[in-house]
Fold this sequence. Notes:
Layout: E1 2-7, E2 13-18, H1 28-33, E3 42-48, E4 54-60, H2 62-71, E5 75-78, E6 83-86, E7 95-102, E8 109-115, H3 158-162, E9 171-172
Parallel strand pairs: 3-8
Antiparallel strand pairs: 1-2, 3-4, 5-6, 7-8, 7-9
Amino acid sequence: MTGSWTGDRMGENRVVPVPDLVKSDLDPAIAARLKRTADGLVPAIVRERGTGDVLMLAWMDDEALHRTLTTGRATYWSRSRSEYWVKGATSGHHQFVRAVALDCDGDALLVTVDQVGPACHTGTHTCFTDSLPVAEADQVPVAEADRLPVAEADQVPVAEADRLPVAEADQLPVPGAQR
Length: 179
């Protein structure tokens, strides 16, 4: 294990053990596309297949991603416990992985799951339950730079953008998952 500084509570830092970059059986073509933190981790955004709800944010290294892709069970690196964990192994609140996508920069994963029970350790369906106040868009002053005209060719209608296909290369295969 190596250590990395991370925020613990507001204004505090502590050393957190992170997995050493060890040999993993992750497909080298996938591994080459990943942009990791200095700790060797990639954030994994987890969403529910049926509802589209964002359930949680977790962390994966190459080995956790390899285990997830080869077992179909969501496996993460626990920064607080310094170990791998399979979601639901102790709680029974399993995540059955249906798809994994890599973002355009290679620095984040989107894991689509069928969730059994609550996703959050607090017992809620999602970890994102604390809404923060946001000013309404029409109440926020628009900066002068935001008022510059945009060339018509640069504008994509929303309906057309929704029809843009997802590149197959960005869909990471999950054995046994149905598309």
